Amino acid sequence: MTKGWPQWEVFVRSEAGLAHKHVGSLHAADVRMALENARDLYTRRNEGVSIWVVRSEDVHATDPDEAEAFFEPSEDKRYRFPTSYHVPEGVEHL
Amino acid sequence: MNARVEYVLRFGDNALVLAQRLCAWVAHAPIMEEDVALANVSLDLFGQARLWLAYAGELEGAGRDEDALAFHRGAGEFRNVLLVERPNGDFAETTVRGYFYDLWASLALAELSRSKDERIAAIAEKARKENAYHLRRSEDWMIRLGDGTEESRSRMQRAVNDFWRYTGELFLGDEVDATMREQGVGFDPTALREPWLERVRATFAAATLDVSSDVWMQRGGKQGVHTESLGYLLAEMQVLPRTISGAAW
Q1: B249 domain-assigned
Q2: Which residue of A40, A42, A45, A46 to mutate against B (max B Cβ within 10 Å)?
Q3: Within an 8 Å CB–CB cutoff, is residue B248 touching chain A?
């Protein structure tokens, strides 16, 4: 029966103010069913106050083969971390 | 028996029997997502049944708790409507039975949430929110499968034709209903018939299904006169506590 039903990625916001987080995926015929199934599968134990569903095919990911080019260049640039920033003496409200 | 005990038992038994029916779908639903969804509805109803039966036991004052009422009564002592005890059949039949009940329950619980009996009003208020979601799901499936393929539509129409005869009882009042209404505790079941039919017609129009007519309406569940299938359901549900007295997890 799921044959032909698209896959959806589910994002749940655990409480107001927090971001929606990816929790898993499911099959559903359309948006309405996807939201209902997400509610029944992923918020049974009071996990959420809001749900997003996105068609899995609409999620675009980086290519693992390109991981070096994408992510390694940031590894040796420690100056991008705030830890290397020294607060000048006498500055109080920072 | 005290009219209020009788009255509360009816709502508790409706929830209990339908919950037991629905839990039989676990691991048998057409898709995994639906499997969990049906289990959720079943658990909601078990939760409602506990609240109703616990209150019925307190009102009765004979020392019976919700377990005693659930597991140590025979079919003739159950007060659920016939609709909810009918077998699951295929997914279309379960959907149609669920839709008829959910829609009726949404109207009944709205009435009960205004009951002068605060305990009844509180239970109804809690159950209402759960029921609103059950109705949303069952109505969605009515429309999806009714206005679906040729096969799904014919199965749905067959289920409607089978179950229609069990809908009349939902709107029949008796002395217990009248007494509860006089006391401001309950409502007049006949008054729910028009709003129920109105919504059914709208849903059926969207689902391209036909409303049955001219069928003999079955009755008796509320007074303890049941179809044969309730006995089998209870045998399965009650076997453990009746075999091993005081069994616990």
Answers
A1: no
A2: A40
A3: no
